[in-house]
């Protein structure tokens, strides 16, 4: 799954040539997730295939379904005052806490494929980009659900059975025959896991949902005790060095559909 143009199981057929991803040059600074998401969608709607490797400021990111809770607006104000603003993303799933020590990868492109035909191929392509970067540090991850992790799903990437990466995708129709696709991954590299889980659990409890998360279900790529993994050039694994590796892994790859 690490080859730049590997044929993915379940991939939808597309007429050649498929465009290659181009990295946004200024996406690396910590920023608003929604602002960057909108920028990527606009680029893709114009026909470009773009990628961003970026960090998000501390935040709780939730799907639109969270708006149904009566306390949602009041809790958003309270958590924002505590330095944890809440943003509502376009994709589904569950709550995702963001903070220092995490790296995000977002891909956006325009396609004539259909969601039902290409959804799995999109996830496999995204996981392939991530795993290609991880392999340069000698890390092996597997796609699986992890009970007790936030925003759990079968296309998590797990390290020794604990969730290290969450993935999501969003499709928006641009005309009768085409969609814009946004595929996203959130990577735990050297984050404060206890703080992230505590903030997520506090929000869920005060919201009145039945969701709670376990710090034992999630893991950083950088181990807590063992030596840091080293990259192929002798560079130790960190949020910054992983961001560079992800940029190299995605540059020049063709869109999956």
Strand-and-helix sequence, N→C? Answer: EHEEHEEEHEEEEHH
Strand order of the largest sheet: 1-2-6-10-9-8-7
The CATH superfamily name is: Bira Bifunctional Protein, Domain 2
> What's the gyration radius in Å?
18 Å
In the predicted model, the low-confidence regions spanning at least 5 consecutive residues are 1-15
Q: What's the average pLDDT?
A: 90
Supply the number of structural domains. 1
Describe this structure in words.
With 257 residues, this protein is of the alpha+beta class. It has a single domain (22-250), classed as Bira Bifunctional Protein, Domain 2 (BirA Bifunctional Protein, domain 2). Helix content is 28%, strand content 21%. It has five helices and ten strands. It has helices at 33-45, 72-81, 115-135, 193-207, 239-250; strands spanning 22-23, 50-54, 59-62, 86-88, 96-98, 102-111, 142-143, 157-159, 162-173, 179-188. The strands form two sheets. Strands 1-2-6-10-9-8-7 form a seven-stranded mixed sheet, sandwiched between helices. Strand 3, helix 2 and strand 4 (86-88) form a beta-alpha-beta unit. Helix 3 (115-135) crosses helix 5 (239-250). The longest helix is centred in the middle third of the chain and has 21 residues, at 115-135. The two termini are 15 Å apart.
